[in-house]
Amino acid sequence: MKYVDLEQFWKDDELAHKENCFSKQAPQVALGIRMSDECVFAELNEQGNPWGHTPRERRMDLNRRYNDLAEKIVGKRLLREDFPESGENFPGLKGIGEVFGGQYVFDGNVTWLQGSCSTPQELEKMLDGVEKMDIKDFILPENWYREKKRIYDTYGKKPGLWRGVRGPVTLATSIFGVENLLYLYYDETELYKRFSETILHVIMQYITVTNEEAGYTDETAPRGFSFMDDDCNLLTPEMYAEFGYPVLESVFARCSPDDKDHRYQHSDSAMPHLLPLLGKLNLTGCNFGPTLTVREIREHLPKARIDGQLAPFTFMRNNEEDIIAEVKRDCEMAKEGDLRGVNINTAGSINNGSLLTSMRAVMYAIQTYGRY
Questions:
Q1: Does this model's pTM top 0.85?
Q2: Omega of the bond prior to 28 within 30 degrees of 0, cis?
Q3: Packing angle between helix 320-335 and helix 356-369, nearest 10 degrees?
Q4: N or C end: fewer C-beta atoms under 10 angstroms in the chain?
Q5: From the CA atom positions of the chain, what is the Rg in Å?
Q6: Among positive and negative, which fits the CA dihedral 7, 10, 13, 17?
Q7: CB atoms within 10 A of CB 178
Q8: How many CB atoms lie within 10 A of CB 74?
Q9: 1: number of CA atoms within 13 Å, CB side?
């Protein structure tokens, strides 16, 4: 394993995260990688489905054993070890895809949102139904109020807020299809805009409902919102300006109105053509695909913390020299003009198969090449 002064690294990393990773007092580039629950299986040579259900007791055992190993290799316990009992969990709201007639289907490995329509006529009919729908009545389960009271009386817990969602483009392509959405822009311009406006309406309803159920107003609710929109790269800038951008702009205006409020976009795809538009949203954080560089992103998003740009497949292949080369590249770009604001992470998900020794290689690269 590469030599890392673990004690010094974590002291420096704590400073590196201040001011959203832009602090001039930071001695080195920040490390955002904290691994994920998925990674326990390959690391511990255990059977299991990384994206499937793992029983609570087994999950806690796996995570404790993983953390024992992590403490030795990277000097820190990384994964949570305490999970609430089933009685503490609020019943789930219906997913936003279900509002649009879709179904969430687990295929044995991962859950996919299956669409509900494929022609403009079917889409129009579906949107008619959504616009007439009582969103609150639809998304809250029948036992919601009973369970809400029981959980509060027993555990003192209030329901969580709704502060992140599939991005508008990915939601639309899942419900209506990729090619169908692209053709819609040219063939049915007004319906294309209406689809976007309806998505915005539904997102706003989710925010309102969860604020109210947790006892907040817009003025008192915690700030911030995140979008996960992998498919946004499929649209041209003109298409995105009509469909995705207005949704993000409106939601951020409501949930993140002040300059330092959390405004986040995740899209692990090739999307340099959308950076000028996303730059207008004053994002404070982003996680984009590995084909983009820190330099490209920073040109358009000067105030955003960049969580990246290590390729997830490079990290998962566990070739330490390749990992170090990519992190060195990103550290050098972070130091250009002393701009800072880079939080070394994978440009996308951290997948099972990514080892703790690879995280240590990232730490080595930061400690060696990422000093400001």
A1: yes
A2: no
A3: 40
A4: N
A5: 22
A6: negative
A7: 14
A8: 24
A9: 17
